Amino acid sequence: xxxxxxxxxxxxxxxxxxxxxxxxxxxxxxxxxxxxxxxxxxxxxxxxxxxxxxxxxxxxxxxxxxxxxxxxxxxxxxxxxxxxxxxxxxxxxxxxxxxxxxxxxxxxxxxxxxxxxxxxxxxxxxxxxxxxxxxxxxxxxxxxxxxxxxxxxxxxxxxxxxxxxxxxxxxxxxxxxxxxxxxxxxxxxxxxxxxxxxxxxxxxxxxxxxxxxxxxxxxxxxxxxxxxxxxxxxxxxxxxxxxxxxxxxxxxxxxx
Length: 256
Prior knowledge:
By secondary structure, this protein is α+β, with helices and mostly antiparallel strands. Helices cover 36% and strands 23% of the residues.
């Protein structure tokens, strides 16, 4: 009889969670779900958002997530169980995306507000519109992080063709002119050391943007991708790589 009682008591909790959301995923062995504030999203859009959040969350260790619980006296305690903070996360594409949550049947159910849905809809539209460019980014990114871009035998023109940041490159050119130091600096802007495993993972779809508010030299609009990574060593810490899709190819965008 005890086994029957346990089975009956557990089942309603699972059913309650399933009734709350069909959009579940696993985070390091823990089931989580999404509750969308916007009700007119199609199943395919919800699935795309769920899959990207699941991937982004997979990059964050459980030790870097803190789930704060509202006390009963908190004005939002009737709406949410609490909020989450991702502290000291090396790679975090969920910043500004996941915050409030409810606990349903012992599971965390993230509350996806309208602003987050709007942000994702824009990202999904970009990835759909520029599907070929983003597909090409996969191979390029693997070469980049794998240290396969060897510029040791390249001409200066070939090296410059791997880069894209006209204002900054013009400043370097103005400072050093046609000197060996100038070519050395240009070559040094192209990272060619393999990234440590896990330090520079493939980005969230939220990392892809269409930039329009840019200097005239950049010839906007421009498809860009900002990749977050973790630098090791004495000066290690969170960093960012910016890539731009220019004239049918991806280029690294260096900066001061």
